[in-house]
Design brief:
The protein is α+β, with helices and mostly antiparallel strands. It is elongated, with a radius of gyration of 30 Å. The chain has a domain at 288-387: Homing endonucleases (Endonuclease I-creI, Roll). The chain has helices at 4-8, 24-43, 49-73, 81-114, 137-151, 154-168, 187-198, 221-233, 273-279, 292-295, 298-308, 326-340, 361-371, and strands at residues 202-205, 210-217, 244-248, 258-265, 309-311, 316-319, 344-348, 355-360.
């Protein structure tokens, strides 16, 4: 079993991305230097091979650099909401810098044209300079520049660029080897995955890694489709919508009944193995790991409630914890008390060695306040306040 200190190393509690050391900034500075020098030499009558080589190397390094950024935002899960906001603000600052570049150019133009100095012949245009016709190529360039600014906002440009990269580049497809999908994963995706494992979610080993399986009956299809949208948008599953499956009902209940359900899987990650080994230490029955209190955040608690909980006969809230042992359920109950001050009781479910957790009526409203911000609207019926 992994101890808490080891677990804490596998994720970061803050939402910001601490960038690893990278060779690309210094590399691209050298290639740009070669490109500029080569272009200057070309203008002086030398061949342009150095400029072409510098340009080729610059484009190649840009592709490699963008691939790292895309991987950080998908399979590494480093692009949280705060990081994305930082990228957008950075683009805004770039636009502001461009504005000041144009301001300096226009300032120089008006300064020289309104009061030309003796160095340029006290005339405008300077002596020996034949200006372009402003209604020809300059007007066309102005029209293209203004139209591009009107039809595309900076945020839309970033979104389109990210979508283009994630949908066309080879490293963002399902064919990526699991061993190349590494962590640490950010806390947002871990909240969803850990919360789901407490409920209906499960894990399975597959090709040098592990993956999550999400399952919901047809009646909860809207919730599962929302869950798929969130997980796929973070780069952890295919973007294709889950399809509906059918199966016959249990033999002891109604074997002729046809039941419909949705199911989808995440991509296989080598860095999910520690989660699988913690929840499935013997590769069979799902257990509660001893470090769960670290991960049972309000968002994880909300996913657990949506998966396996419901309001119970105006007496509180019930978690269907039938698959866990009594010791594990006692541990879950202690986490709810110590971390969120939620009072609960444990009762037999009516089946042999199966128990459920009941959040007492006195703590029900406190539970609702904690989880409601993370609830999908289709699941609000599970936490409607008691009358």
């Amino acid at each position: 079993m992994i101890v808490v200190n080891e677990v804490l190393k596998k994720f970061q509690s803050h939402p910001f991305h601490l960038v690893d050391q990278s060779p690309w900034p210094i590399s691209i500075s050298f290639t740009l230097f070669f490109t500029v020098i080569g272009f200057v030499l070309y203008l002086q009558g030398y061949n342009g091979y150095l400029a072409l080589l510098g340009l080729f190397l610059t484009v190649s390094i840009m592709i490699l650099w963008f691939s790292d950024v895309n991987s950080e935002g998908t399979y590494n899960g480093n692009h949280t909401k705060q990081v994305k906001n930082g990228l957008v603000y950075g683009f805004y600052l770039f636009v502001v810098s461009e504005v000041f570049v144009f301001i300096s150019v226009f300032w120089a133009y008006f300064h020289s044209s309104i009061a030309p100095s003796i160095e340029i012949g006290i005339s405008w245009p300077p002596l020996g300079i034949t200006p372009l016709n402003p209604y020809a190529i300059p007007l066309l360039n102005t029209f293209l520049l203004v139209s591009s600014g009107l039809f595309e906002s900076p945020k839309c440009e970033i979104t389109n660029l990210i979508y283009l990269m994630s949908s066309t580049l080879p490293f963002s497809t399902s064919r990526v080897a699991p061993l190349k999908r590494i962590g640490p994963h950010n806390i947002d995706i871990l909240n969803i995955l850990i919360g789901s494992l407490l409920g209906d979610g499960s894990m399975e080993k597959y090709i040098n890694g592990s993956r999550f399986v999400f399952y919901q009956a047809k009646v909860n299809g809207e919730y599962l489709l929302w869950l798929h949208k969130v997980i796929s948008s973070l780069g952890y599953a295919k973007k294709e919508l889950p399809i509906m499956y059918s199966k016959k009902g249990p033999f002891l209940v109604n074997p002729d009944e046809i039941r419909y359900y949705y199911r989808f899987r995440t991509f296989t990650f080598y860095s999910f193995d520690w989660i699988y080994d913690s929840f499935y230490p013997k590769g069979s029955r799902k257990v509660i790991p001893s470090f769960l209190d670290v991960y049972l955040s309000p968002q994880a608690l909300a996913v657990w409630c949506m998966d396996d909980g419901f309001k119970y006969k105006n007496r509180g809230f019930k978690f269907a914890t039938n698959s866990f042992t009594l010791d594990e359920i006692n541990y879950l109950s202690s986490i709810l008390k110590n971390k969120y001050n939620l009072n609960s009781s444990i009762h037999k479910s009516g089946l042999n060695n199966q128990y459920n957790i009941y959040i007492l009526k006195s703590s029900f409203n406190d539970l609702v306040k904690i989880v409601k911000p993370y609830f999908h609207p289709s699941m609000y019926y599970k936490i409607i306040e008691n009358n």
